[in-house]
Prior knowledge:
Blueprint: H1 7-17, H2 19-34, H3 49-60, H4 63-108, H5 113-118
Helix pairs in contact: 1-2, 1-4, 2-3
Amino acid sequence: KLNEPKQNLMKKILELKGKVYVLDLVAQVEQVEQSGGQFVADGTRRRTKGGVFLNLLKSQVSKEEWDKIFEDEKEVRKRRKAMKRRLQYKGENNQAEDNLQQEETSKTLPVSYKDCLTNKA
Length: 121
């Protein structure tokens, strides 16, 4: 009903808060949608139903509950960021190695046909 792609997050909310609470929150989302929806902080677009749901949830739970709900999401985000950093570093490292190989190759190749005949490098 909310079209939220983060199914694991929604399951965790259901486990921690209960079915009745979640259904009540979904009803609140429907009311917000019927009254024109909710815009993101910068006002450029409307929130999705899942975004409205999470925003309402955030306003109704304690900081500790919110952190508990999102602890897995934060861990996943950390892992993705670390992987991205590793790949970026590996890419920069490979680029530096390629540049070094090109420099070495260009130094060892003869510059002209005459150098080939005289074996000058």
